[in-house]
Specification:
- It contains 13 helices and 9 strands.
- It is of the alpha+beta class.
- It starts with a strand and ends with a helix.
C-alpha cells in the first residue's frame, strides 16, 4: 500500500475506497456508547500535517488492540479509506507500532510543510524587527527569546484551521502579511501596534494548543482548560511588559509618546477583543481601528484555511458543488478561475498592416 500523510489521505479519499497506509500518533482515546448501547472507541490521530478522528466498533478486530495502546503511541494504520461530510472512515483496518527507524522518520515531519513554516517564521521575525516603537519591538524580541521554541510547535486551534504542529506560525505569518499590506491602504492605522497585536493575539495558545518536542499529539494543560487562551495571553503579555519596563526604568522611555501605559493598554485590548463578540469568547468588544482590523484579519485567514481544507477534502455532490463542511455555513462552489489571454488570442491581437487597417475601417464605416 502507498504510505501517505493525513493531509494527503484527506485529499485523496472520497466515496470510493482507497487502499493506503498512514503513520500517525495517538492523540486521544475515548470509550463511548451508541444510543443502542453498542460500545465503540473514538480515536484521535495526528501527524505533522493535521489530525483526524476515527470510530472503532466493538466487532472490529482492531477494537481490542486499540484499547491497549499507550498514550502517544506511534503506529502505522493500513486499510480501505473513504470520506464523507463527517470525516474519514476506515474499513478492514490493521495497525502496528512503528519501529525506531520509522519513528525517527515520522518525527521529522513533512519536508514541504517544514520549509513553508521556516519561511513563515522568517516573515514574522522580519516584520517584528520593522516595528519602530522601541517598546513594542523589544517586547516581541523578549517573546521570541523566551517562548520562540514552543511558539514554533503550537497549533492555531484544536480543529477547524491550522490545527497542526507549527500551525500558529503559519496563521500569524499570513495575518502579518495582510496587516502590513492593509496599513499601506489605511495610513492612519498604528502599524506598530497592529503587527504586535497579530503576534500576541493568540499567544495564550502556547498553553492551550502546544505540542511536545517529540510528537504530534497536542498537550492538554490545566491552565489552558481552566482559563482559555485570551486570559492567558493577557497574563503573558502583562508579565513580559512589566519585566521589560523594570529593566528599562533608567532609560528615556518615560518621556516617549504615546505613553508606555497607553501602549500597554491598547495592546492588551487587541488581545481581549480579537474574537469580536462576547458570545465568541471576547471579554470586550473592539473599540479602536486596530482592534477591528485585527478581528477581521484573523477571521479572514481562519476562513481561507477552512475553505482550502474543504475544497481539498469535501465530496463533490454535483458539478462544481461541494458538500457543506463544518463550520462553514453552506455548500461550496468551485471558485471562478482568473482571467487570462491564451497564446492564440495574443497572436490574433497583433497589429495588422496599415493597408488592412484601412480596409477594415472602411468596412466598419460602410456598415454604419
Amino acid at each position: 500500500m502507498e504510505l501517505v500523510t493525513i493531509a494527503q489521505l484527506k485529499e485523496m479519499a472520497g466515496d470510493s475506497p482507497m487502499y493506503a497506509d498512514v503513520d500517525v500518533q495517538l492523540q486521544s482515546r475515548q470509550s463511548k456508547m451508541t444510543r443502542t448501547n453498542k460500545p465503540y472507541l473514538e480515536l484521535g490521530f495526528a501527524d505533522s500535517t493535521g489530525n483526524f478522528s476515527l470510530k472503532l466498533w466493538e466487532d472490529r478486530p482492531l477494537f481490542s488492540v486499540a484499547q491497549g495502546w499507550p498514550d502517544g503511541v506511534m503506529i502505522r494504520v493500513s486499510g480501505k479509506w473513504t470520506q464523507n461530510q463527517y470525516g474519514l472512515d476506515g474499513n478492514d483496518l490493521s495497525a502496528r507500532v512503528l519501529n525506531q527507524q520509522e519513528r525517527e522518520l515520522f518525527l521529522t515531519g513533512d519536508p514541504d510543510l517544514q520549509a513553508k513554516q521556516q519561511i513563515d517564521w522568517q516573515t514574522i521575525t522580519s516584520l517584528c524587527s520593522s516595528i519602530h516603537d522601541p517598546r513594542l519591538q523589544r517586547l516581541t524580541a523578549r517573546f521570541f527569546d523566551k517562548f520562540g521554541d514552543i511558539f514554533r510547535r503550537t497549533a492555531a486551534a484544536r480543529r477547524n484551521h491550522h490545527a497542526r504542529r507549527g500551525g500558529l506560525v503559519e496563521h500569524v505569518a499570513q495575518m502579518m502579511r495582510s496587516a502590513d499590506a492593509l496599513c499601506q491602504v489605511y495610513a492612519d492605522w498604528n502599524r506598530d501596534l497592529l503587527l504586535a497585536g497579530v503576534l500576541f493575539h493568540d499567544c495564550g495558545k502556547l498553553w492551550e494548543n502546544s505540542y511536545p518536542r517529540d510528537g504530534f499529539a497536542q498537550i492538554h494543560s490545566l491552565r489552558g482548560e481552566m482559563l482559555g487562551h485570551i486570559p492567558i495571553g493577557i497574563e503573558c503579555v502583562n508579565k513580559l511588559w512589566s519585566d521589560m519596563i523594570e529593566e528599562e526604568a533608567g532609560t528615556d522611555w518615560l518621556i516617549l509618546e504615546p505613553r508606555s501605559e497607553d501602549v500597554r493598554l491598547h495592546l492588551l485590548h487587541l488581545i481581549a477583543s480579537h474574537h469580536g463578540q462576547y458570545e465568541f469568547g471576547s471579554p470586550t468588544l473592539p473599540r479602536t481601528p486596530e482592534a477591528f482590523a485585527l478581528h477581521f484579519i484573523d477571521n479572514i485567514d481562519a476562513k481561507m484555511e477552512m475553505l482550502k481544507d474543504a475544497y481539498r477534502n469535501a465530496n463533490e455532490i454535483a458539478p462544481q458543488i461541494y458538500e457543506k463542511v463544518f463550520p462553514l455555513p453552506a455548500n461550496l462552489v468551485t471558485p471562478l478561475s482568473s482571467f487570462f489571454v491564451a497564446k492564440a488570442q495574443e497572436e490574433e491581437s497583433i497589429e495588422e498592416p496599415e493597408g488592412d487597417k484601412e480596409e477594415t475601417n472602411m468596412g466598419v464605416e460602410s456598415s454604419l
